[in-house]
Amino acid sequence: MAKRVCCLYRVSTDKQVDYDSNHEADIPMQRKACRKFAEQMGWEIVHEEQEDGVSGHKVRAENRDKIQIIKELARKKQFDILLVFMFDRIGRIADETPFVVEWFVKNNIEVWSTQEGEQRFDNHIDKLLNYIRFWQADGESEKTSIRTKTSLGQMVEEGHFKGGTAAFGYDLVRSGRLNKKKHELYDLKINEAEADIVRMIFDKYTTEGCGAQRITTWLNEQGYRARTGKMWHPATIRGILHNLTYTGVLRSGESRSEIIPELQIIPVEQFERTQEILKARSEKTLSECKVPLNTRGQSLLAGIAYCGHCGSKLTLTTSGRYRKRTDGTIKESTRIRYACYGKTRKQTDCDGQTGYTMHILDDIIDKIVRDIFSKMKGVSKNDLVMIRYTDELEQRKMRLTALKSKYAKEADNLNILKSEVIKCIRGESKFSQEMLSSLITESEVKCSRLLNMCEDAEKEVSDSENVLKDLSATFDELVSWAELYDDAEFAQKKMIVNCLIRRVDVYRDYKLKINFNFDFQQFINGIDSVV
C-alpha cells in the first residue's frame, strides 16, 4: 500500500503566489516539485495545504492555521509523510521550527524535503544537524529582512520616496534614478489642489473639533471629491489624519527622513495636536477623553458635566418661556438647562436639583478658566516642568545602561557556545553534545529574559522623556491658549475647556467639584507652589 503524503507549500510574499521567474520558490514550482518527487517515490498525495504571504521567520507555528490543520490530521493518522519543497517551508524560527519537525517525527510522521531528503532523529547528531539547519535558515531570513529594511530606511533617510502609491495631496514624478533592475524610481511632489483639501481637513479637526464623519459630510456637501472622483469616506479621512508624510517627513518602518520643506503640507505642531486628539477620542481612552466628541451647540460642558448627588450625566434640555409685555404682545424666550438624567427619568434616588441654568454654570467655569490662564503669566517653565522629572529620567537611563551591558555579555557567551556546534560534530569540542545543547538553551533563556528587561527599561526611559516633552509642550500650549481664549470662537473655547477639565460634578446651589486632566493637574499644583 502506497504511503499517504500531505504537502505543505508556503511563500512569504503575495508576489510569489503565482508563477514568477524572479522567484525560485513560488507556489506552482513547489507544487510541481513535490508531486514529481512523490510520484518517483511511489507515494500517494492525499492532502495539500498552501500558505500565501506568510513569513516563516516572523509568524510562529501556533499562529499559522495551516500548520495547525496539518497537526490535527497527523493526530488522526490521516497521512504518513509530510512533504515540502525545502525544510525552511515549515518555518525559519531557530528556537521553534526544529521542534515542530521533531513533533511530527515523534507522532510517527516522516518529514521529507524534495531537496534535502528525510529529516530523522535517530541520534544526537541528527538533532544537532536539525538545529543547525533552522538556525542557518533563521539567520538568512534575519539577514534578508535587515538588508531590505536597511535599504528602504536609507532611501527615506536620504530624502527619497521608497515607492508605492502617492498619498492624497501628492503626485508621483520621475526622478531620473534607476534601481538595480534598471527601473526608473519616482519622487513625490505636492499637488496643490489636493493639498488645500488636506489643510482644510486638519484645520476642521484641530480647530473646529469636527470628527471624521462631520468632515466627510462637509466635503461631500461642498462638492469636493476624492482622487478617484468618488464621494469621501470617513476611513479615508482618518487615514489622512494619521499620515506623517504631510509634515514633510518620509518614513519606512522605524526610519525617518529629515523634514523636507518642499513636501510639507501641515505644520509639525498641528500634526502632533491631531494625533493627541485622535488618541483621546479613541474607544480605548474614551473614559479619559480630553477633547469634546462634539463641538456643536452652545453648551460649554456638554459631555463632562455630572450630578454631584447621584452621579448621572447632566443633559441639556430646552423649554420655551412666554411673557406678556405691557403693550399686550407676547415675548417668547428659550430656557436651556443642564438636567439630571437620573432624576428626570426617575432612574436614581437623587436628592439634588433637577436642573441647572446653562449660562450660569457655563459662566462659572468660564471664570475659573480665565483665572487659571491669568496665573500662568509670569511663571517659568523650568519651575513647573523640567526640574521635577529630570532626576527620575537619569536614574532610568542608568538602569537601562546596566541591563544593556549584561545582555551584551550574555549574547557574546551565546555566540561562543554556538560556534562550538560544528566543533562538537567533528569531535573537536571540549563539550559533549548534551552539555552543549543544555548550555545553549540556558544562555538563550538568559538572553531572552535580559532582552525583555532591556525593552521594558527602554520603554520606561521613553515614557519619562515623553512626559518631559509632553509637559513642556502642554505649558507652551497653555500659554498660547491663554492668549487665544478671550477672543476665541465658541467651538475653540469648548475644545480648550475639554482639554483642561475631565469632569465637573455639580451640587445644589452650583457648588462644583472639578477634576482636571492629569497632566494639567500637575500644572495647577505647580502654579500654586510658585505663585
**Helical percentage:** 40-55%
Q: Any low-confidence stretches, pLDDT <50, length ≥5? A: 15-24, 142-148, 284-289
Radius of gyration: 33 Å
What's the average pLDDT?
Answer: 80
What's the count of strands? 15
Short structural description:
By secondary structure, the protein is α/β, with parallel strands linked by helices. 50% of the residues lie in helices and 16% in strands.
What key attributes describe this structure?
alpha/beta, 5-stranded mixed sheet, 16% strand, elongated, 531 residues, 3-stranded mixed sheet, 14 helices
Describe the protein in words:
By secondary structure, the chain is an alpha/beta fold. The protein contains 14 helices and 15 strands. The longest helix is centred in the C-terminal third of the chain and has 52 residues, at 433-484. Mean pLDDT is 80; it is low at 15-24, 142-148 and 284-289.
